[in-house]
Every structure is written in structure tokens, then in C-alpha cells.
Amino acid sequence: MFQTAPCALQSATVKICHLAIVIPARNEAPSVAGVVRRVRAASTGEVIVVDDCSTDATAEEARAAGAIVLSLPVQLGAWGATQTGLRYAIRHGAKSVLTMDADGQHHADSIAILERAQASTNADLVIGSAPERLSRPKRLARLYFRVIAGLEVRDFTSGFRLYSERAARLLSFRHATLFDYQDLGVLMLLKNYGLSVVEAKVNMSERNHGMSRVFSSWSHVARYMALTSMVCLARAGRARRPT
Amino acid sequence: MSGVQITSLSIGLLLAATIVYLLRRDHLHGPYAIWWLSMAVVTALLGAFPHVIDHVADELDIGYPPALAFVLAIALMLIKMLTMDIERTRQELLLRRLAQRLALLDAEIKQRNQTPSE
Q1: Which of A66, A72, A77 is nearest to A44 (CA)?
Q2: B118 and B73 in a common domain
Q3: Fold (topology level) of A19-235
Q4: Could A76 and B96 be called an inter-chain contact, meaning their C-beta atoms sit closer than 8 Å?
Q5: Is the Cβ–Cβ distance between A222 and A116 less than 8 Å?
Q6: Domain limits at B32?
Q7: Do residues A221 and A137 lie in contact, with contact meaning Cβ atoms separated by under 8 Å?
Q8: Which of A68, A69, A83 minimises the CB distance to B100?
Q9: Residues of chain B contacting residue A73, judged by C-beta atoms under 8 Å apart
Q10: Is residue B43 included in any domain, yes or no?
Q11: pLDDT tier for residue A3 given thresholds of 50, 70 and 90
Q12: A118-138 pLDDT per residue, tens
């Protein structure tokens, strides 16, 4: 289904011809290998696991399962790790970049759903969304952000996303580096630059282990809401010409 | 020289000497050094001539001269703190970009070593 165009980057050691699949992971040793194997079975994309300074065997597990592993020397959080993957993917010639979680909640066989949505809508970002699984605080947060940021995205916290090359390139730059979370800041930046976002409905599992980092406690939620409101304040209404 | 003048002069000179000492030991660099050296000069001067504040306050019709000193000091501290956070933000950006770049280069070196033919 992919046209295998000649790879752009000659000097790189690994050439990614079409799709890169970026999986940020912090202390996900129990699940990461299974996720990598299922993804490699379901897609021909190059799998890149970004190890966010894990203290367990995440990197070794991912490497043994056949992924390219990028190891961060300091913990940068989910978005910092994801951006590392985007930078690698763009550097090595990827034409689109899919991101998914390492804990097994996103299904490898749903990758095709996102690819079909991208092919039919030509959107710069396809979000794999499962809005019915949103918890009450997340629903409230969504309402709040819809009011202050004017974003119509339903499952804005979903990390299961397919970026076009243009979106991935835009998000790999410095101006996207200081985001603390991958959701609102990223969506608003894309909106500022006039890039299109669509959602595709997918099934998601409960997390195999661990829990939502953001919505784990009220103090986390308060911090998240405050930081994300600052992002909205910084980005709202800052329209740019499309790159 | 009055008692209060001796006290303020010694505090001002002590502060100025500490800053110059830190500067010469490379604990303050570039723009920070300039800021703190200016502060050292100002504290030493105000220590030597504390009544300057009284005269300025009198010119500005401020009834209680120490209030002028406090307001100026707090304003300068706020400006300094704001510029410190701007600088910290810049450094945080730099740190994150460097950490990411290190991860990218590290992976590429490992790939090169695995495939020496390329």
C-alpha cells in the first residue's frame, strides 16, 4: 500500500522509507516487548522506542524485540520522549510518524484505521480516539479547554496519533520543545500553523499495568490544568502562515 | 562621620567586597557579573552617603524616605527574579534539546558500529 520512494537521507545509518512508529516508554519493561512485536507484525513501519531514562530493562526489552532504541540521558517526560522520536524519524527520512503508548492500551491492528483516515482525509494529524473511555475529570477538562482554546478535539489526551511529515517536522522544532504534555500545546501549535486535525474512532484496552500519569491524583490534575492553561494563554490566537 | 553612616558604609563595602570576590573566583559570569558589580557599586555608594536617599525622597515629596529605598529595592529584586526565570526557561530548552540530540547521536553511533560496511 506504500509507494517506496527512494529514501531521502543518504548519510544516515538507518533509512526510514515511509512510516516511523514512535513509542515513548518509561519503566515499561513488562509490556514494551509485546507492544513492539505486535506492531512489527501489523505494520511495515520502523519501530522506534524512546526510553525516557527508565530504571528497568525497558531499553533491552525493546531492542530484543527488534525496535530502534533511543535512550534519553535525563527524564524529559512523555512529550520530550515523543519529540525525540519525531526528530529521529524526520532526520531519517520518515514520510509520516505514528505515536503510541508502550503500556499496551493502543492496539497494533488499529494502526491501519489511522492510516486509512489519513489517506482519505489527507489530514496532518489523525488522532486515534476512544472518547467513551474518558473519565469525568477528563470530560470536564475537555469542556474547559474547548472554551478557552476553541479546540474541537474529543479525545485530546490520546497518545495514539498519526502525524504527516509536515506536522512531524513542525513539532520537531525548538518551539515545541518546552511543552510539558503532548496534548493541548501540540494541538494548538498545529492549529496556529493551519494544519488539519481529524479523529478516528479506535478501540483501546485498559492499561495493562500502571495508570494515567496525568489523571492519577488531584494534585497532578491541578498541575496539569494550570500548566496547560498557560500553554493556551501562550498560544491562543497566534495564527501563523502555514509552513 | 555619624554612627549610622559607619554601619551602612561597612554593610555596603562588605557586600561589594563579597561580590568582587565571587566575581574574581569565576562564580559569576558575563551578564550576571555586570549586574552584581553594578549592585556592589550602588550599595557601597549608598552605604557611604545614606542621606542621598533622604534628599531624593524629599525631591519626590515622599514623606518617609526609607519607603523609597524599600520600593526601589523590591522593584529591582522583582526585575532580577523575572530575568532569572527567563534565563532558566532558555536553559531548560537548551537542556532538553541537548538531551534529545545526545539520544539521537548515541543511537546513530551504535548503528554505525553494528554495520561497519556502511
Answers
A1: A66
A2: yes
A3: Spore Coat Polysaccharide Biosynthesis Protein SpsA; Chain A (3.90.550)
A4: yes
A5: no
A6: 1-49
A7: yes
A8: A83
A9: 99, 102-103
A10: yes
A11: very low
A12: 999 999 999 999 877 777 777
